[in-house]
Amino acid sequence: MARRSKCHVLLAGALVVLACVAVSHRVAAAPESKRIQICHGYGCAFRSTLVLGPGDAQRFASLLAAGRASPKAERAAISRAVSYFEGRAQQVTGVRDQPKSEFGASKIKGQMDCVDESTNTDALLRYLQGRGLFRYHKVEARTSRGFLLDGRYPHWTAVIRAPDGVRWVVDSWYAPMGGAPDIFPLSEWKQRGVLESGALN
After folding, report:
1. DSSP state of 150
2. What confidence score (pLDDT) does residue 7 get?
3. Residue 41 backbone dihedrals phi, psi, to 5 degrees
């Protein structure tokens, strides 16, 4: 009887250990929160911390899952992810950014120029890529066009590269906060003036 009781104790201990391992595994698998610094005020004059939690991670996963069929579908999903992200960013800045940049709005909290917009969008794209949510695209370094001497104001954008090597801009500067960003080939974007949106296509 004593031997049987000892076996029962050992079995119970083993079950407890297995239960603890299972709980530990579930905790480790849960999405971790990610802090992203939201630039605003023009030229990242101000930074507000946005915490993307498990709920945000699930929302992004759902949005990107809808784009698994093709590169074009994934770009449409990225557009929806940017819109959601900007809605979350508004919650921490407290201000809905207006489309484009208003002259004289520098150092005004919540308002964003192309440096702020491209930096924030790039941070989101790298977050999504880091979570393995892209099937077709890779994030590339931000880029710019225009340098005054060519008659164009400098303008920055985030960039992604498709499987065929074509680079696409993800330019959220033209739309009001939460609107759909311009997503079209970088080669076309490079040729445009600052007032020309991809929506003209």
Report:
1. T
2. 41
3. 90, 5
- Within-domain flag for 70: yes
Helices in the chain by DSSP H: which ranges?
Answer: 2-29, 54-65, 71-93, 114-130, 186-191
Count of beta carbons in the 10 Å neighbourhood of residue 143: 16
Q: What are the tokens at 201?
A: 């296509």
When pLDDT is averaged across residues 85-110 and rounded to a whole number, the result is 83
Share of the chain above pLDDT 90, in %: 63
Please indicate, yes or no, if residue 58 is contained in any of the structural domains: yes
Number of Cβ within 10 Å of residue 131's Cβ equals 16
Q: For residue range 138-173, what is the model confidence (pLDDT) as tens digits?
A: 999 999 998 765 556 789 999 999 999 999 999 999
Q: Which residue has the higher pLDDT, 159 or 94?
A: 159
The domain tally of the chain equals 1
At a CB cut-off of 8 Å and minimum separation 6, what does 158 contact?
A: 118, 121, 122, 125, 139, 142, 169, 170, 171, 172
25 located within any domain: no
What is the C-alpha separation between 131 and 172, in angstroms, rounded? 22
Comparing CA positions, the residue from 114, 124, 117 lying closest to residue 35 is 124
| Position 88 in a domain | yes
- State the Cα–Cα distance between residues 162 and 135, nearest whole angstrom: 10
Q: Please tell me the pTM assigned to this model.
A: 0.80
